[in-house]
């Protein structure tokens, strides 16, 4: 008689282990909260055709370390002869000093709501935006695209 009960006890123990294991996995899955979800980077921009100025504002995402960023600027589908380097002081193809985190003398962290700007030189760089020109600025972090700003020069 003891032999007939052994398989039943073995099956009951095996089922109990399976239920316990599935309950443990289920509890862990329900308790799992992912760490801070990656948020998309959203940048808005404005172009002043009269001054040849470009201003970019980090609207969502970040903070970004501008030392890891690169920019590609196109005016009416044509890239600038000299692309901006960020962060920088004064640089060839641009006039004055960049502002905000694009300026090498400031904090390189670009935070939400913060603006950065630069001015295209009128004599040593082109093409220049005219009022109504389409301007596209592509932003890369470590050579990976993270944001594209499309705006019309005013």
TrEMBL record:
Signal peptide: none annotated. InterPro entries: Flagellin/pilin_N_arc, Pilin_N_archaeal. Residues 3-77 form the Archaeal Type IV pilin N-terminal domain. It comes from the Archaea. It holds the Pfam family Pilin_N. This is Archaeal Type IV pilin N-terminal domain-containing protein. It comes from Halalkalicoccus paucihalophilus.
